[in-house]
Amino acid sequence: MNKFYAYTDKALKYLRRFYVREFNRTKMQIRSDELNVIQSTTNLYDRMRRETIRVYLLIAKNKYHELTGHDDTITEMWLLGFLGTSNPLTGYIFLNDIDRKRQYFTESVMSGENLDKAAKKALRYWYGSAKQFADLVTDEAALQAFTDEKVRLVQWMTAADERVCWTCNSRDGNIYPLEKVPGKPHYNCRCYLKEVK
Ligand SMILES: [Zn+2]
């Protein structure tokens, strides 16, 4: 099992439970008409955004600390900088996409789609992105650590578990200068970088 993402996986398990709970709570609110749909979904996505950012910060600090022995560099500002920048793998800005996801869910509910179905779809859409960005935050924290520790060379390690990245096989073991490391070639790629000493 690839341990590079072990903490990330633990955090994702927690986040997934949190999201499921929040969607259930929102469904109840919408059904009982406590708040209108827009108010309910706005609150839902606000809570999910805040909790996701809080947990991403833990993920980044954990990875950075593992590689440097401290985590001073990893602040909320550092994280928001990363999440507020267009990502080359996903092609979108995480923070900007939150409202698009909310609107998509709100519209399907308001257009009369079955609430359970709409919520399930919205959760899948949300979690897919949250999971991908949890990996990307982990990678970015590692890159920041390598940069700060003045690491010169890193080695591409292909995820050697049940989720082997077949498309990444040709990169396995390749050594790159830190400033020339290629980005991840596909979604859910769990290859990682290791310092060459
Ligand atoms: Zn890969």
Keywords:
197 residues; mainly alpha; 2 domains; 3-stranded antiparallel beta sheet; 5 helices; binds zinc ion
Topology, element by element:
Blueprint: H1 6-32, H2 37-68, H3 76-83, H4 94-110, H5 115-148, E1 153-157, E2 175-177, E3 192-195
Helix pairs in contact: 1-2, 1-5, 2-4, 2-5, 4-5
Describe what you observe in this structure.
The chain is mainly α and 197 residues long. It is 60% helix and 6% strand. The protein has a 3-stranded antiparallel β-sheet, covered by helices on one side. The model has no long low-confidence stretch (mean pLDDT 94). Bound molecules: zinc ion. Zinc ion binds next to loops.
What's this, in brief?
This protein is mainly alpha-helical and 197 residues long.
Contiguous uncertain segments of 5+ residues? none
Shape descriptor: elongated
Main β-sheet description = 3 strands, antiparallel
**Which structural class fits the helix and strand makeup?**
mainly alpha
Can you give the helix content as a percent range?
55-70%
